[in-house]
Amino acid sequence: MTLKKVLIVSKTFPAIGLEILKRKTEPFVVPFFEHELESLPEIKKLLKKGYDAVIWNTKHRLTRDILDLAGPQIKAISTMSSGTDHVDLDEVFKRGLLIGNTPHVLDDAVADITVGLMIAAARRFKEGIAEIMNNEWKYGVQWMLGQDIAGSTVGVVGLGGVGQAVVRRLKGFDVARFLYSGRSDKPEAKALGAERVPLEQLLRESDYVLLCCPLTRETKNLINAETLKIMKKNAVLINIGRGGIVDNDALYNALKQGQIFSAGLDVVDPEPISKDHPLLSLPNCFIIPHMGSATIETRNAMATISANNILHALEGKPMVHPVTS
Ligand SMILES: O=C(O)[C@H](O)CO
């Protein structure tokens, strides 16, 4: 019996996932770094070889043109991410392809990063480090004053798995109020002590605004010049969702003019941003390079799920985490 062929668009795909695939398929791991701009022609060349399934772990968007190259035998796709904004889902569904992702296993790792960003942005880590590096460490009682988490109002935009894990962590920080906004009431909110409010109220009342939602048509540029104006002057904005949720120019202006206090971003648009990007020049904008799920355990878990998504689909079973809309 010939084995099904699986293309893994991820040069450093964890061995644990590869071993799972090797048991029943013939996997091929791309031999180049998949995120680099110049890798797209190589990915396209490989896709033309007729794979039955693909693990799409690259920032290149999976579009109709690329799907056309894959041929009629392709049956299943898995991302190695929770977000699926880099896939043209309408096109995937139109073609009757099965698609899965890897949510939930990264909730804890991303929640840790979120709390880290809150502290870093609220307590001015970037400015503090710069003072040391520039030999300008000047202690004084009014020097480097930041914002407390204790007693604050924390507003979570998108109380999904990550948002909930953040609230659980912050329970130990003596937060005064948790607010959340989103499309629907979350049954978990009651136990977490979080109150659902309209986005505008959340922005108006929160000292910390945490963007924990996916990038969708509704959330694109959700944080823009208008919504930033509603936020408090001491507000700290954290984005661990996707860069596209925030309008960069508007954020730059708001931070520069002291309209809000600071921002901590794990995600930006585009990624990677160039080192000359205006946001990087701001002392009150603390940016890290999309490291939310970057722990050994989490990446292994993500690889395991994406491998099993593919195996299940090829065997006619439901994926571990199917994407349905
Ligand atoms: O969508 C995801 O899985 C995360 O952003 C990856 O870090």
Automatic annotation (TrEMBL):
Organism: Parnassius mnemosyne
Keywords assigned: Oxidoreductase
PROSITE patterns for this protein: D_2_HYDROXYACID_DH_3
Membrane-spanning residues: none
Pfam families reported in the protein's UniProt record: 2-Hacid_dh (PF00389), 2-Hacid_dh_C (PF02826)
Residues covered by the D-isomer specific 2-hydroxyacid dehydrogenase NAD-binding domain: 115-292
Cellular compartments per GO CC: cytosol
Record's keyword annotation contains Cell inner membrane: no
Name of this protein: Glyoxylate reductase/hydroxypyruvate reductase
PANTHER family xref list: 2-HYDROXYACID DEHYDROGENASE-RELATED (PTHR10996), FI03731P-RELATED (PTHR10996:SF119)
The D-isomer specific 2-hydroxyacid dehydrogenase catalytic domain, residue ranges: 14-323
GO molecular function ontology, one term from the record: NAD binding
Family per record: Belongs to the D-isomer specific 2-hydroxyacid dehydrogenase family.
Organism lineage: Eukaryota, Metazoa, Ecdysozoa, Arthropoda, Hexapoda
